[in-house]
Specification:
alpha+beta, four-stranded antiparallel beta sheet, 12 strands
């Protein structure tokens, strides 16, 4: 392969590689967003199932801060009152927005139900796994559950912890309960290959086809661009030199009646079988049709 063609192929491959990278990155980011959305919805379904499995007995009431409740602002605190007495909880606006539901009654029910019977990370993760499979997500999952006790201390429990449970595999952080005393962090063991291996094969095939197609198109276009000017120049030179000099045209070579050479003058020789005109030692390629016309012309002159 000629050096120019190697450079051309290298340039096309590099440009195609950049496009391939950005297309893969966009596809990966889009699929990760969809994965996280489906994973969180599956987790909300798992929490609902856990709530249905609990029997909530007893009376419980909760109240918002009266002044805050009259405004559109998020209240600063709420208090729960049951047989054990009244308990106040400070509300964090950021955590409040990350709650799994905006229904105040359902939030209170979550706090009461999971406060009476502790939410276990292992059992919740098992239910979440079932919900994930229903959503066609077949990935290893893990949960970290943090509970705020009445005295304000934090109790954390994790499912089987692995090296992949890090920020790169974090799919959601949610809070359960009106007072946001239960924090859930969900992880999924996913990678670029596990998310878009089909797309990688498809994009790689398209990349190879397009690079080869562009390379061949440039080669064909380059040949056409170079062939058109050469043809015009040769025809002009032939028309310019042949008729003007009309000296004695002599056959200087005739071997087996197949190779013919015609000497036009001391500077020019025409090789008809090779389609070459030599002028001052420089060979010029001539089109076959033009060579045929010149040979017929020279033979007529000789006769």
């Amino acid at each position: 392969m000629r050096p120019k063609r190697i450079i051309l192929l290298f340039v096309i491959a590099c440009v195609g590689g950049v496009i391939f990278f950005f297309v893969c990155k966009y596809t990966y980011d889009f699929k990760v967003v969809k994965l996280k959305e489906k994973a969180r919805n599956a987790f909300i379904g798992a929490v609902d199932q856990e709530l249905r499995n609990r029997s909530v007995d007893g009376d419980c009431s909760f109240n918002l801060d009266a002044k805050a409740a009259m405004s559109a602002e998020i209240p600063d605190s709420v208090y729960f009152e049951d047989e054990t007495g009244k308990r106040w909880y400070r509300l964090d606006p950021k955590k409040n927005r990350m709650n799994i539901t905006n229904n105040s009654t359902l939030r209170a029910l979550h706090s009461f139900a999971f406060g009476k019977k502790e939410l276990l990370a292992d059992s919740l993760n098992a239910v979440w796994n079932e919900q994930l499979r229903k959503s066609n997500i077949f990935l290893e999952s893990a949960l970290c559950v943090s509970l705020i006790n009445i005295d304000g201390s934090i109790k954390s429990q994790n499912t089987c912890w692995n090296e992949w449970c890090n920020s790169s595999n974090l799919v959601f952080t949610s809070y359960i309960g009106y007072a946001c005393e239960i924090e859930i962090i969900g992880y999924l063991c996913y990678s670029v290959w596990s998310i878009m291996y089909k797309e990688i094969f498809l994009y790689l095939l398209l990349y190879i086809v397009l690079v080869y197609g562009f390379y061949k198109s440039f080669i064909v276009l380059r040949r056409k661009l170079y062939s058109l000017p050469n043809k015009e120049i040769i025809e002009i030179e032939v028309i310019k030199e042949v008729p003007v000099e009309v000296p004695v045209i002599k056959v200087v070579q005739n071997i087996d009646a197949t190779i013919h050479s015609y000497k036009l003058n001391e500077r020019s020789i025409f090789y008809s079988e090779r389609n070459i005109l030599v002028v001052d030692g420089v060979e010029k390629k001539i089109q076959p049709q033009t060579c045929r016309i010149l040979e017929l012309f020279f033979r007529r002159k000789r006769s």
